[in-house]
Specification:
Order of helices and strands: HEHEEEHEEEHEEEEHHEHEE
Strand content: 15-25%
Organism: Pelotomaculum schinkii
Oligomer: single chain
Number of helices: 7
CATH class: Alpha Beta
Structural class: alpha/beta
Protein name: Selenium-dependent hydroxylase accessory protein YqeC
Length: 248
């Protein structure tokens, strides 16, 4: 099953990806999955590496607005342009503001936004201004890398582990399990605190195909289901079958 089908995406959807452990791969997988008859724009509210230009041409804002002609030409060719506000060092691009996301909705049937950075870690503690979620978001995809199970709570595996320790009450160096991750995600001061009220929140437990025993992933899924979360996807953003299970 495709990720887009598992999510039940509706036209004019704004999908924001937060968390860690495969957001960028998942975003581009989703961009390629959406049928060509739909116009898809990719962007970020943080910073991301420049995309491969053959599939995802780069469009930079001009005077706070995207160049309309260039953007339309790419979309009419069936390409999925990536919109940023400027180039940075280390092959990265700067993102756009939450307000500028609204402009892109005039051009696109679907807008995909990487709204969080995790320094390549599969789990993250968030500062007060993170993640940067657009108010227009209709689906909030919370990505968790399954390779974090069994690792220790420290900076080698977790971005800002001290914040995770504070919110979950676990000591630094503790073994990361499903309960710790569920408590982190559902904590009132955690990643969902600024989620738009109308957005559907869907955790995507990524890299499940690499687990010897998928039981811990399913246990996390059961712990996450509740008032704010009615669906959890277990899958692999780069796998042949990206959706391995849907829990509701």
């Amino acid at each position: 099953m495709k990720i887009s089908k598992a999510l039940g995406l509706k036209q004019k959807g704004v999908i924001s990806l937060v968390g860690g452990g495969g957001k960028t791969s998942l975003m581009y997988r989703l961009a390629e999955e959406i049928p060509l008859q739909y116009k898809v724009v990719v962007t970020t509210t943080t910073k991301i590496f420049l995309p491969p230009p053959d599939k995802f041409p780069l469009v930079l804002l001009e005077k706070d607005e995207p160049p309309e002609k260039e953007l339309y030409e790419f979309l009419l060719k069936g390409l999925r342009p990536v919109v940023g506000s400027g180039l940075l060092e280390n092959n990265k691009m700067n993102g756009i503001s939450r307000e500028q996301v609204n402009l892109l909705q005039n051009y696109a049937d679907f807008t995909l936004i990487e709204s969080d950075g995790s320094k390549g870690r599969s789990l993250k503690g968030h500062l007060d201004f993170e993640p940067v979620i657009a108010g227009a978001t209709t689906v909030l995809l919370v990505v968790i890398g399954a390779d974090i199970f069994g690792k220790t709570l420290d900076s080698k595996y977790v971005h800002r582990p001290e914040l995770v320790s504070r919110l979950t009450g676990r000591k630094m160096g503790s073994i990361i399990d499903a309960e710790m991750i569920a408590e982190l995600i559902t904590h009132p001061e955690g990643i969902l605190r600024d989620s738009p009220s109308n957005a559907m929140v869907v955790p995507f437990i990524n890299k499940v195909d690499r687990m010897e025993n998928q039981g811990e992933g399913r246990r996390l899924g059961r712990l996450l289901l509740g008032e704010k979360i009615s669906k959890v996807i277990l899958g692999s953003a780069i796998g042949i079958n990206p959706v391995l299970a849907i829990m509701e």
